[in-house]
Design brief:
Elements: H1 8-16, E1 30-41, E2 44-52, E3 63-64, E4 67-69, H2 77-89, E5 97-106, E6 112-120, E7 134-141, H3 142-145, E8 151-158, E9 161-170, E10 173-175, H4 177-198
Parallel strand pairs: 1-6
Antiparallel strand pairs: 1-2, 1-4, 2-3, 2-7, 5-6, 8-9, 9-10
Length: 199
């Protein structure tokens, strides 16, 4: 599934193979899952992101990966992510090859713990958007997303402790919060693997 022009997906697949994610078992937080969808288009590797609608309860209009809250019908957290992908953008689970799980991500203001999965799909993938949840989708070249000029870093004081916060500027869009933290994880996996390959 990796493209002729890029090696991002193949490098990430290799870097994440056999990795053990850090999971957060805080029972006081709401559990949710997302799916980072990677695909090759026109010889270049891309990542898919949702533009959330203005009718969702939280994070209106923000850029996010497909996903949502765990419910009792979900046996495992990856099932939550796959179900939400289908509900939000119409891609069925049998079209997704799940290749890895990243570290759990916490949100500071909405009290979530998010399980983060990485999957591959084939292009074209024929989305069918749920307009109540998704206003649009973005197909962003990973090369552009990982460009150092796109990332912004700042220090914020949270619980009296300084913490780094990241955001990504892509055209007219600003990706921040938990989604930016997930991208940063993915980017670090790629960079660390790339360094190892060259050493």
């Amino acid at each position: 599934m990796n493209g002729m022009g890029d090696n991002y997906i193949s490098t990430l697949r290799r870097a994440l193979s056999g990795s053990t994610p850090k999971e957060n078992h805080d029972q006081s937080r709401v559990r949710a899952s997302v799916m980072i969808l990677l695909f090759e288009k026109d010889g270049y590797d891309h990542v898919l992101l949702n533009v959330r609608s203005d009718t969702v309860v939280q994070h209106k209009g923000e850029i996010a990966f497909p996903g949502g809250v765990y419910n009792d019908d979900d046996v495992v957290f990856v099932q939550t992510a796959l179900r939400e992908v289908h509900e939000e953008i119409g891609i069925k689970s049998d079209k997704i090859r799940v290749i890895a799980q990243l570290d759990d991500v916490r949100t500071n203001t909405t009290n979530f713990v998010i399980s983060v999965f990485v999957g591959e799909i084939r292009y074209p993938y024929y989305p069918c958007l749920n307009p109540l949840e998704v206003a649009d989708i973005l197909e962003i070249p990973i090369k552009q997303l990982f460009d150092p000029n796109c990332i912004r870093e700042e220090i914020r004081w949270i619980d009296s402790m300084p913490q780094k916060r990241y955001s990504y500027g892509i055209g007219q869009y600003l990706i921040h919060g938990a989604t930016a933290n997930m991208i940063k994880q993915l980017q670090e996996c790629y960079m660390n693997s790339d360094v190892e390959m060259k050493s």
